[in-house]
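Please fill in the sequence for the structure shown.

STRUCTURE ENCODING:
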């Protein structure tokens, strides 16, 4: 299973670190939306869906969390714990985010605006949609 975890280049000096992300450069798509989540309750799971078209990069800019990726044939768990790492989640990946540390801020760069019709929230439908 192909999992792409980007390691972005921080611009560091004695003042601290800065990471810059540009569309079609560090990020392989046009960025049409940025959203982030925080204050996750202990033990909760978010996601549990796939997308029909959306591409995304998940960046844990503070704290840590795990992402389960499932392409319908194989599953893999990825730990995000560095603010300079980005996990590429393509449309065909069922994904679940869990094991959030208390202070996690998970930021997502997305290739399109929010559209509930792009979500596949039922696992059997996901398998069917992608011909698994
Ligand atoms: C995804 C994972 C990684 C909006 O109104 N606009 C938005 O852009 C988003 C992302 C969400 N919402 C509303 C829809 C729901 O009422 O915010 C609420 C929570 O969304 P959801 O339950 O889908 O959140 P997650 O954390 O399960 O999933 C989110 C993204 O929705 C999803 O696309 O891939 O993060």
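FILLED IN BY: designer on duty
SEQUENCE:
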């Amino acid at each position: 299973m192909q999992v792409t975890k980007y390691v972005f280049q921080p611009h560091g000096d004695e003042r601290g670190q800065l990471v810059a992300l540009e569309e079609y450069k560090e990020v392989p798509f046009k960025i049409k939306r940025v959203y982030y989540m925080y204050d996750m309750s202990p033990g909760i799971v978010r996601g549990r869906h796939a997308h029909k078209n959306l591409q995304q990069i998940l960046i844990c800019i503070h704290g840590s969390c795990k992402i389960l990726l499932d392409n319908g044939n194989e599953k893999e768990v990825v730990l995000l714990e560095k603010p300079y790492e980005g996990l590429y989640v393509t449309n065909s990946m069922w994904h679940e985010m869990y094991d959030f540390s208390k202070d996690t801020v998970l930021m997502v760069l997305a290739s399109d605006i929010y559209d509930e019709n792009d979500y596949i929230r039922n696992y059997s439908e996901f398998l069917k949609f992608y011909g698994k």
